[in-house]
């Protein structure tokens, strides 16, 4: 059974470099399509850079008491030479009560082209942290990813789930340097397109590093390791942000996915985000 999985908590990379597709015309003049595409690119890059500098990913979570969150829903449909429908939805809920912080995230993506479903993906994560003091905390993590179109494919993962818990420790926590590690034990569940499933003990370890080199440069490195009898899976996301001038900034990232149950065990992805304003 071949598994292709992504460990929870690993950051997703935003758009790299905009190519000529940014200028594709979907109206007679293409003006509105161009504006929409440029805004999408700007939003993706800004989110990538802001997420990298998010202090809550590295220091103790500081959030308002009670319930907070956000939700989004998107739909597009076309008819004519090609009929297609796209539906995306996402939600994030956070509940903080004293030293206990819980977060739930949900993402859904459904695509249909010429009355044929081409994507039915669901991804959900539950993350809970209890802070005993400024350095020591305990975590519980649950995640599930589902591919609704994996039926009949032995090399596709229909359901990938993990539930685990353990301790975490903030080794360093300053404005310029923050590093925390956590490790735990749990249950890993994998099911392929022929409903062959494996339930086994899984061990997870994670590291989050933030280093502000100077006022213009900072680096991040996120590492997640999940080990079970069926596979060793490792994700590492290294990123460096540069503020060259007040008008120009860039982020370079390198994402590595390793899964020793795959024929090709390692996938690598280089990302470059550029922002220039004048």
Keywords:
278 residues, mainly beta, Porin, globular, disordered N terminus
- Biggest sheet, spatial arrangement of strands: 1-2-3-4-5-6-7-8-9-10-11-12
Supply the CATH class of the largest domain. Mainly Beta
As for the number of domains, it is 2
- Estimated structural class: mainly beta
- Shape verdict: globular
Low-confidence stretches: 1-30
Q: Compute the gyration radius: what is it?
A: 20 Å
Q: Helix count, per DSSP?
A: 1
Beta strand count: 12
- Give the helix proportion (percent range): under 10%
Oligomeric assembly: single chain
Topology-level CATH name of the largest domain: Porin
Largest sheet: 12 strands, antiparallel
CATH architecture level-2 label of the largest domain: Beta Barrel
Q: H/E series, N to C? A: HEEEEEEEEEEEE
Strand content: over 45%
Give the CA-CA distance, first to last residue: 53 Å
Give the integer mean of the pLDDT values.
77
Keywords: Signal
Protein name: DUF481 domain-containing protein
Organism: Fertoeibacter niger
Pfam families: DUF481
Provide a concise account of the structure shown.
With 278 residues, the chain is mostly beta strands.
Description:
With 278 residues, the protein is mainly beta. The protein folds into two domains: 1-60 and 159-278, Porin (Beta Barrel); 63-133. The protein is 8% helix and 60% strand. It contains one helix and twelve strands. It has one helix at residues 31-52; strands at residues 66-78, 84-97, 100-113, 116-131, 136-147, 157-173, 177-192, 197-214, 217-227, 232-243, 248-259, 266-276. The chain has a twelve-stranded antiparallel sheet with strand order 1-2-3-4-5-6-7-8-9-10-11-12, with helices on one face. A hairpin with a 2-residue loop joins strand 3 (100-113) and strand 4 (116-131). The longest helix is centred in the first third of the chain and has 22 residues, at 31-52. It starts with 30 loop residues before the first helix and ends with a strand. Residues 1-24 form the signal peptide. InterPro entries: DUF481 (IPR007433). This is DUF481 domain-containing protein. Residues 58-86 are annotated as: Disordered. It comes from Fertoeibacter niger.
């Amino acid at each position: 059974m071949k598994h292709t999985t992504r460990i929870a908590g690993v950051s997703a990379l935003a758009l790299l470099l905009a190519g000529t597709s940014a200028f594709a015309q979907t109206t007679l003049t293409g003006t509105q399509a161009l504006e929409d595409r440029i805004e999408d690119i700007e939003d993706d890059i800004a989110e990538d850079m802001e997420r990298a500098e998010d202090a809550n990913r590295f220091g103790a979570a500081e959030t308002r008491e009670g319930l907070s969150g956000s939700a989004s829903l998107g739909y597009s449909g076309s008819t004519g030479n090609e009929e297609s429908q796209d539906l995306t939805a996402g939600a994030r809920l956070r509940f903080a009560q004293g030293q206990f912080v819980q977060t739930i995230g949900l993402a859904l993506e459904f695509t249909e082209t010429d009355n044929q479903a081409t994507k039915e993906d669901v991804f959900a994560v539950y993350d809970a942290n209890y802070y005993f003091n400024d350095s020591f905390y305990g975590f519980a993590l649950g995640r599930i990813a589902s591919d609704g179109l994996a039926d009949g494919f032995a090399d596709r993962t229909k359901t990938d789930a993990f539930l685990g818990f353990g301790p975490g420790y903030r080794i360093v926590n300053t404005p310029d340097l923050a590093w925390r590690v956590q490790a735990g034990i749990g249950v890993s569940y994998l099911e392929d397109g022929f409903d062959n499933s494996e339930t086994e003990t899984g061990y997870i370890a994670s590291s989050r590093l933030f280093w502000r080199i100077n006022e213009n440069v900072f680096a991040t490195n996120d590492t997640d390791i999940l080990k079970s009898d069926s596979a060793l899976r490792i994700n590492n996301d290294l990123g460096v942000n540069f503020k060259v001038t007040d008008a120009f900034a860039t982020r370079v990232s390198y994402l590595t996915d390793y899964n020793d149950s795959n024929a090709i065990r390692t996938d690598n992805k280089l990302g470059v985000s550029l922002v220039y304003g004048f």
